[in-house]
Amino acid sequence: MKLKLLAILALSSLPVAAVAMPVVGDMIGTDPDTAKAALEKAGCTVSAFEAEDGKIEAKCTDIATQKPMEVYIDPATGKVADIKSED
To answer: Which label site among 39, 49, 52, 81 has the fewest CB atoms less than 10 Å from its CB?
Structure first.
C-alpha cells in the first residue's frame, strides 16, 4: 500500500507542460519564423500570416479547442496586440 502511494505521489509531482494561447502583450517576434515558433510553442498552430490594418495577422488554430483564431502582432514591437476567434 505504501509503495503504491509513493508511486502515485512521485508521478503527480512531475512537471506538466501547459499549452495555452498567447495573450495580449506577449512577445511573439516580428519575423515569420520567430513568430511562428513562439505561437506554436504557446499552443497556436499557424497556417498563414497576412498584413491587416497595420498589424501582422497570424491565422492559427488553438490546439486545446481546435478553434480557428486570429492573432494580431504589432510589427514594431513584436508583441500580441489583439486576439480574435474566427467564429
So the answer is: 52
